[in-house]
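Comment thread on ticket #2218

A.B. wrote:
> Attaching the input chain for the structure job we discussed in standup.
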Amino acid sequence: MTLLDRLGGRQAIMQGVEETFRLLSRHPHPSHGEELTCRDYAAFLREKLGAEPVEDSVHNLMCTLPASSGREGRPTLILQGHMDMVCACAGGFRPESDAVNIVTKDGFLRSDGRSSLGADNGLGNAAVLWLLSTGQMAHGPLTLLFTTAEEVGLAGAMEVDPAWLSGSDYLLNTDGFHLSRAIVGSAGGRRETWSRPLEMEGAPALPAWRITLPGGLG
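C.D. wrote:
> Ran it. Output below, let me know if you need it in another format.
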């Protein structure tokens, strides 16, 4: 029997990951506003994986999972993703207080159009958590690490206790964009604010134009 068979087939996999993604998306989770979502992650880890997660002062979340039987000597792997989302908003959507309304249209998960979906990085996290919750994934020692405020310069990752990473051999980040590829690299963030005095002067009497570019795929 293949792993696909043990997981119940493609439809069961898609349904399981989608249901987990919806669960993890039920509360607002903008950068620096992930507290309630962090609780949802922690509850899933306790109830579905029997884990004891640790939360820090900025709501980063970490837990360890023992290796599957026979794989105790394998390298220790960290699976890491972030809990916040890109907050593109329209139609009065308030990311600090409004949860994303997820709909299915033409075979795809989408928002209702008032906000971005938050699949970055929620879908990667949902896939990891659901797959592990099935009990069908044989693995070595694991550390699960979910960080906050990634979209505003990796702010949560910068606060991670180094002890959480100690003793691990590899880290696999699930915030990727290439199907069936693992990318070897590193990530960093830096934000700077520049300002200068505003100088005003009268505008010439010329016609004004408003230009709109609708229908983009972004």
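A.B. wrote:
> Thanks. Noting for the ticket: DSSP finds four helices and seven strands in the chain.
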